[in-house]
Amino acid sequence: HSKKDHDLSVTNDRSQYGGFWIRFSAVAADTVILLLPQLAITFLSKNLMSPVGSVENTVFEVYDTILSIVIGWIYVAGFHSSSWQATPAKRICRLKVVDYDGERISFPRATGRYFAQMFFCSVTLGIGWIMVAWTARRQCIHDIIAGTLVVKSNVTLPKQKTATKTKKETT
After folding, report:
1. Which of 17, 23, 67, 109 has a Cα-to-Cα distance from 97 of 20 to 30 A?
2. How far apart are CA 16 and CA 51, in angstroms?
3. Which residues, in sequence order, are CB contacts of 23 under 8 Å at separation 6+?
């Protein structure tokens, strides 16, 4: 059998989308993956910069926060827009991020999704994440904003109907 034979077509079958706990597990694992290099960079930077006063310490904290955001952004958006369509942890969990046609998302779309997640899930105090429980396609707020879905790796989505009509449809 080919890979295509094992793909599942999805419409409203919620079981084919990534649920809360599997997505939470993937995010937690990715956080651990990112934490080790970020701690090493922070340690080295702090020792090289040696901030002494409160102003220097504040500048270092801002630098460290921006660096953490940039590293997370490149990691998440880079992997989501790659041929994997998933971060390493999402891939281990057999999940992938796709657009509504089941296609790989672009880096700009993955970037918007990442920053929407950072902002809206914080502003809503986590409700943006919990939305997975009641949305038809198990979408978080950042998925809805970015027009993305998190599906199981073996899922193929049917193409959405386009607004343009074929010649046969117009006659």
Report:
1. 67
2. 50
3. 90, 93, 95, 132, 140, 150
Instruction: Find the length of the chain.
Output: 171
**pLDDT tens-digit readout, 92-127:** 999 999 999 889 999 999 999 999 998 888 788 888
Quickly count: other Cβ atoms within 10 Å of residue 92's Cβ: 13
Of 116, 124, 104, which Cα lies nearest the Cα of 144? Answer: 116
Tokens for 140? 């978080």
Alpha carbons 86 and 78: distance in angstroms, whole number: 9
Of 23, 15, 34, whose CA–CA distance to 143 is shortest?
23
Number of other residues whose CB lies within 10 A of the CB of residue 71:
14
